Amino acid sequence: MGEDAWVFDSLVGFLRGPVWNVPILTFIEHKSLVFEPGEDDKNEAEYKKIHEDYKNLVDFMLGSYMEDIGITPGQFETACGLGTGKNKTKFTHGLFEQVWAADDFEIFKRMMVQKNIELQLQALELLQQRYGVLPEVLQPGKKDKEAGNENEDKVMLEVVRQSKNEHEAHVAALDKEEAELEEVIANSLEEHKRLSAAKQGQEALLAEHFKKVHITDPTVIGVSDIQAPEAYQSNEEIDPEELARRTAFLKTQRDKLLALKKAEREKQLAEVEATVAKSRPKSAKAARSALGRHGHQNIDPKTLQIRRTLAEKLKKEVIAECEGGN
């Protein structure tokens, strides 16, 4: 039995690397743009279609990796039953959520709405950095980083650098109205408070759902202490039309941020492809293919078994980790 113990750890390593993260995070970020807070009923049909595409992508990537290492769904299930794996791996909220979201529409929906808000926050933070008004806790390197997220840290550092360079190169080309609006938004900490409150609200909804699906100790996903915040009340008197203009401008900045992040992730994938092309040819090819199209791939139905086994194993591992005091 010990000979198969490496299988689970190997897969977790794959889930943390660029070959998995580049297509998965690119999908999540780009598709999250339609997931607006408070519009669940209006867009439910579209959300479910995107969820089907996400499940397909997750299965496509997992199936490709399993083919690379020559493991069948049955062998993987057996390997996942070998011990608890305590102290071998440090699981993260993001890793857990990405897998569970494929099986649970509510988790997927909350993850996507939250990502939309996070992208707007990141776009706002880039603006604030340009004008030197960003609170110290939000400066690069000052945030509480989630363990195991080194790939994304590198992406954001490069995006910050490129954003500053691009802004300096094109600042003269900005029309007066756009330049003034950019500066107003950057200097308004109310925007940051508003988006942070919205993000916390989504985290509270997600935490509540995890309780409903019998994840009895939500500390394993880092949301146990979150309570639903009251509706955010701005201290600024902003005309509704002006607020709409600011929101639209910030979403334009979010879209520019997305383009920079995707380009940087593709560079990251290209760098790693050279090293994994021989050892993991199918998963490397799958990642490149998934970046080009987000539709249905040819999936072995047995891959569904892999996904569900993995989700259950991750659940047991993170709970065991929590109970062990980690």
Describe what this molecule looks like in 3D:
By secondary structure, the protein is an all-alpha fold. It has a single domain, classed as Up-down Bundle (Adp-ribosylation factor-like protein 2-binding protein fold). 70% of the residues lie in helices and 0% in strands. It is built from twelve helices and no strands. α3 (40-69) packs across α12 (303-323), α4 (73-80) packs parallel to α12 (303-323) and α10 (240-276) packs antiparallel against α11 (281-292). The relative contact order is 0.18. The model is unreliable at 84-88, 142-148 and 216-226 (pLDDT under 50).
Short description:
The chain has helices at residues 6-16, 18-31, 40-69, 73-80, 93-103, 105-131, 150-170, 176-187, 189-212, 240-276, 281-292, 303-323.
Number of strands: 0
Mean pLDDT: 77
Radius of gyration: 21 Å
Could you describe the largest sheet, including whether it forms a barrel?
A: none
Portion in beta strands:
under 5%
CATH topology: Adp-ribosylation factor-like protein 2-binding protein fold
List keywords for this structure.
0% strand, Adp-ribosylation factor-like protein 2-binding protein fold, 326 residues, mainly alpha
